[in-house]
Amino acid sequence: MTQAPNIGEVVMHHTADAYAIGIDPFFSISWHRWPDVHLGPLTVNLTPTKHVIFLIIAAVLVFLTMWIAGRKLERQRAGERAPRGFANAIEAMVLFVRDDIAIANIGHGGEKFAPYIMALFFFILYSNLLGLVPHGSTPTGNVAVTGALAITAFLTIEISGFRALGPRGYLRTIFPRAPGLSGAGALAMSIAMGPIEILGKFVKPFALAVRLFGNMTAGHFVILSLFGLIFLFGHLEVWNWGIGFVTAGLVLGIMLLELFVAFLQAYVFALLTSVFIGLMQHEH
Amino acid sequence: MTSQLLYLIAAAQEEHAAGPASPFEVNFGLFFWTWFVFVALFFALKWFAWPAILRATEERERKIKAQLEDAERMNTEARAALEEHKKLLAGAKGEAHAILNEAKAVAQKEREALLARARQEQDQVLERAKREIGAERERAVRELRREAVDLSLAAASKLVEERLDDDANRRLVTEYLSTLGKGR
Lengths: 284, 184
Known about the structure:
The complex is a heterodimer of chains A (284) and B (184).
Chain A: H1 7-15, E1 20-23, E2 27-30, E3 37-39, E4 42-44, H2 50-78, H3 85-106, H4 114-130, H5 143-174, H6 184-233, H7 240-281
Antiparallel strand pairs in A: 1-2, 3-4
Chain B: H1 2-15, H2 29-162, H3 166-183
């Protein structure tokens, strides 16, 4: 019997990004880091990583799903046939995201933002689900990816809010009117609220990014830690089969939960983005 | 077996030691990759996928919206028409009322006029009757007077003709007068 690996290290390695991709241990492609790029004070490394590959895979899969569903729907409509099957299921999901997440929460004028929310939802959903595929990896389990998505949400919320409210209205979202106060009191209160409101603007997308990243990473931690039970207790001669089955059962349960969480977190991200856009649009 | 696999994994990962050691390391390069991929996906979906999927729904929405607007407009029109009809009806009612009132007034006036005329005629008839009666009486009195005068004259002439004495004359006249009283 060989020595058990360091479970903690395996967990970290498995959930971490890498400059390699493959179906371990059968084949693996790895590549070298590109040199760093200096963007002003920021030093970034634009080498595509494993998560970048899976991001692209997710995007391609989303596009193919939607493109094929759209073509099928058009053909069904042209043939005056009743909608059915895969295309209809996708249509139902897209419509759910459009009507019940985007338009319902953004409110009046939500159609404008629907393409963004729909792209966001399905992109996150597919990214989440890719982590559940054997040998897959979860791009949304990378805080840089969720951060970048949250920044798109932040920009959408603030820019659309600025365009809807105008400069004066937008300033009001930072220095709000103090209800029930007048004169110097109201002015002092407004100015005092300024830093809090500005902080609030940044906290919202930050929470979006951390929530998605945390949920996606935590599931993998739990699954891999449960697998670790095998290595911790598998050497007990009589119990090893039992340990194996119990662990597999637990992992199966967590996997099902993860499947649910993948949908839930995509929903939450899209929903909250819609709610924040709606809040800004209708801030009067 | 499993542990061997995991060992191989660990060995494979050690080859790429350049990669981050945990998911908590932030690689800023990924921001740009995520934006690039997401924006590309956004436009690809916007141009090639959403229109096909949403066409039917959007058409339905447009149709429903148009129908709602139509319904709204029709409702407004109907309400306006109803209002107008109500106004017309109220006007007609008022008019009818006025006509009725006028008719009543006219009838009342007519009746009063008729009554007045009747009363006047009655008065006239009465007056005439009174006048005729008066005239008739006067005539009768006149006649009577004339008769009396004639008779007196006749009596006087007789008296004169007969040349009777005073006593005889007085008796004669008295007799005559008594006959007159009977004669009447």
